[in-house]
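Protein: Peptidase M1-like protein
Species: Rhodothalassium salexigens DSM 2132
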Amino acid sequence: MNNRKPARLFTMAAALVAAMGLSDIAAGASDRGQQGHEAGDRGVYPISQTKQGHEDKFRQLTEILPTPNVYRTGGGKPGPQYWQQRADYDMEVTLDDANQRIVGSQVVTYTNKSPDTLRYIWFQLDQNRFDARSHSRLTETNDDTERMAYDTLRRLLVTRNNDWGMTIERVALAQGGAALAHVIDDTKMRVDLFEPLAPGDSVAIAIDWQHPVVTPGAVLSNRNGLEVFDDGAANYFLSFFYPRVAAYTDYDGWITKSFLYVEYALEFGDYDVAITVPDTFTVAATGELQNPRRVLSDVQRRRLDRAAQADKPVAIILPAEAAERRAKTPDGTRTWRYRAENVRDFAFAASPAFIWDAMGYQTRDGRTVMAMSLFPQEGEPIWSRYSTQAVAHTLDVYGRMTFPYPYPVAISVNAPIRSGMEFPMIVANAPRPAADDGTYSRREKYGLIGVVIHEIGHQWLPMVINTDERQFIWLDEGLNSFLDTLAQMEWEPDHPAADDLPGNAIRYMTSADQVPVMVQGDALNNRGGNAYTKVAAALSVLREVVIGRELFDDALRAFAERWKFKRPQPADFFRTMEEVSGRDLDWFWRGWFYTTTHVDVALTGVTEARIDTQNPDTEAEIARARDADRAPTIMAERNKAADLDYRVDRFPGLKDFYNEHDRFTVTPTQRKAYEDMVAGLEMWQKRLLSDDSRLYFLHFANKGGLVTPLPLDIAYEDGSNERLVIPAEIWRRNQSEVTKLLIRDKAIRSVKVAKYRSIADADHSDNVWPRAAADSRIELQSRPPRPNLMRDMGETAPMSEEARDG
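Structure follows.
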């Protein structure tokens, strides 16, 4: 069911008001409340104030977020009638290594838990993205007509003459075998049912299919593929390899976006999968191995039992054993059977080259999870040293920040892809050392640790917290990037990730090609800078500055618990964070997620003041001292230096009363007025007049446009320090300039804004008072030699006739 009525009513109301001539009402509201950001991106909202350039950056998101309903509450919880569909798979797959092809058959049991009657079921055929005629391939652009990367041309040539699309050979009812009509559109397939599927009913659909394996995977795909090593051994990682039921949701009905780049929305279910491969291959997959006695030796099974109790990785397949497997010619095939409960997808890796290690990890709720890694010798020496330890570390940190890892295994595989990719219980990671002499670089070490943490972290988002990446890529990638940075920083002190947040978002946030975070995933200009880095930076600011760690962590855990094994939307995250933290954060979501403004605040000046006692004698002495400290004019100063003979010195009679009394002299009349004023005051007013506090007026300018808290570090003349965070609401009446008054009983020596780079401020040079000299180092350079084409081509010029003839 699509809950669109409230948003439609709002659109109709907006149109009516516009027709009445109230042009400040935005007319471009979306049918869905979640996508009202289209108007917000332009800074146009139903409430608009244009006088003196004022904009209310603190108004509520009521006109943008969807109306709460029985499925999703206003506090961010699943509603009392929340539902989601279920799809269970029984599958048999054969990996034909000789022809580099997948052949499969499956029975999908689809259960309709929605309140709607369904007449058809949509499937995703994401493998079709690799067809040369797919929407993904046909809509690629190449704007630069003079330059092209080698990788780009290679990919274009690879796809030109190859068709890696999926061939559907049969679609039928599993019971009885009656063929079902179906239509394929790009990366989607609609299967029409004989009888409408009523709420609560199930249908079992049999599908046979096959397709070639994408090769070379690292060139074309970051999610699956094949590589062949120099000795002929193959390394497969297979994902998106079978027809998958598309998501049917309470907020949008069927999610039928074509697979252009951004990943998928799926349903949970149980998987029973039989994978037939050459008998020299080792297979790792989503789920638990069901037939270890058929595919593993007695020694390997004993090693697995020992690994479950070990506190460091134990080798299951030794390097020598892997070398023996990859050198051996297969005699036949072997079938590996895996079962996974309550997962939303399935993937597997297969190779004769795999070294395999594992260790047990004890969750906070008392279960043992097997942390594992499979990798070829080409991944050494970093894989055996770091991969499984990074898996276990991720289970520990994410389990503490959200909820304990719910599955029995977590596997990291060295796969032929470009970086990393996640699937339930198994992730693919690309990094390997470039050198073959047993050494590795710092980048390779921390690159592997970082990508393993990030991809295993995806087990929580989106594998359990079932976000819809094709609509909002940031809701899993951004949250996961934030959490993986926390986990990396807990790996060791001074980890390189410590420099990541939130400062590394500045370059993107100040760039001309920035778009709002809430833009649909495939439309993003810069997915990494936007959905990953900017969102991670936003959450860092929210945790460290806006809310504080304790309240933020409580709210994040609440979101994770509420939505595990369910499908949240952005509003559910926003509302949960607000409800549990007790903070109104609409200003934060609006600025960071719906606009392209950035943080750039300046401490433009500081004014120091003291209370005027109004006592004429006291104030006269202060004024006289200030006047004495003031530098004279240049003319007066030079006259003194010239030792002028002033006229009043030559004619003393010219001096009178005013030469004896300066302009600060206090009269009896002034004293009497002061005494009369004091007599009319109450005691508390008299105390205020004698208060000796120092008043500091701190003047701030918002140059970037994004309202932000102001974290201040204050140093005093007596050597003490103070840390103070001014909430973002200080900008609520004026989003351009504000002045903050600090009353202190001691002198301030200096003030620094965002000393610890905590708010993604684009320019720190104007964040300190008094101003400090900029620090730099000058690199001396010589002029490059001017080009000499004749010399570079090895040519010489003949001597002129004049020179030759003398």
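Remarks: The chain has a mean pLDDT of 90.
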